[in-house]
Design brief:
Layout: E1 3-7, H1 11-16, H2 18-25, E2 30-34, H3 36-44, E3 51-55, H4 56-64, E4 74-86, H5 97-106, E5 110-113, H6 117-128, H7 132-137, E6 139-142, H8 149-152, E7 158-162, H9 163-166, E8 172-177, E9 185-192, H10 199-209, H11 212-217
Parallel strand pairs: 1-2, 1-3, 5-6, 5-7
Antiparallel strand pairs: 3-9, 4-7, 4-8, 4-9
Helix pairs in contact: 2-10
Length: about 220
């Protein structure tokens, strides 16, 4: 059975396109979805698949270690960090860095992820804004998974994550991407595992799914 390890940022696209992926490969595909950092650790612990979709930095690092075949590496999607609220809740102003900073000071609760690329960025952002202690005192920091689930449960008033990941939770509304100056664009790339006979075919099938329309429908952007 073909096996793919993928970051959560592409979870929605891969789930929806699972039948197309199966048709392209002629067999059911086992897909392991988790944050890049968690997958990177599993790979370094010896877990293998046919192909992986991770941040471009993780693909480059694992290719340098000859775990992934760097010759097969290709960018698949760009992703921005966004903010969401529970469906029906007022949309806060995040049109500027100052507005975002004030929101983070005023909001009673918030949620971000510890292991995902967006959570790592967000932790650094609040440090740069000089409000990390205040924000973390009222933050729910989940080890992995979808932060917007805490909006539905009522545990958090706002949630931060890759927009594509926020969109995977029903009962929430994406307010929009974080403003310039408080934003990062993650590049997600794919590569075959070194020595995998079927890795190139799996990667080709995943890349074929990442059309501009399909990416945008899931809150992602085509790679430049």
């Amino acid at each position: 059975m073909p096996r793919l390890m993928s970051t959560l940022a592409l979870a929605g696209l891969l789930r929806e396109a699972a039948p197309a992926l199966e048709r392209a490969l002629g067999a059911p595909v086992e897909v392991e979805l988790a944050p890049t950092k968690a997958l990177e650790q599993r790979i370094r612990d010896g877990v293998r698949a046919d192909a992986a979709v991770l941040t471009a930095e993780a693909v480059a690092a694992l290719s340098a270690e000859s775990v992934l075949d760097g010759m097969t590496s290709r960018p698949l999607a760009h992703s921005r960090v966004g903010l969401a609220v529970k469906a029906g809740a007022p949309h806060p102003d995040i049109s500027s860095v100052d507005a975002l900073r004030q929101l983070l000071l005023d909001v009673p609760t918030l949620c971000y992820s510890r292991a995902g690329a967006s959570g790592i960025f967000f932790a650094g952002l609040i440090e740069r804004l000089g409000i990390a202690d205040v924000v973390n005192a009222k933050a729910i920091v989940i080890p992995q998974g979808f932060t917007a689930a805490k909006l539905v449960s009522g545990e958090a008033a706002i949630a931060f994550q890759q927009i594509s990941e926020l969109m995977e939770v029903e009962g929430i509304e994406v307010v929009g991407p974080l403003p310039d100056g408080a934003q990062t664009v993650a590049v997600f790339s794919g590569a075959a595992f070194a020595g995998s006979a079927g890795g190139a075919a799996v990667l080709d099938a995943v890349a074929a799914l990442c059309t501009p329309d399909a990416l945008r429908a899931k809150g992602l952007e085509p790679p430049i």
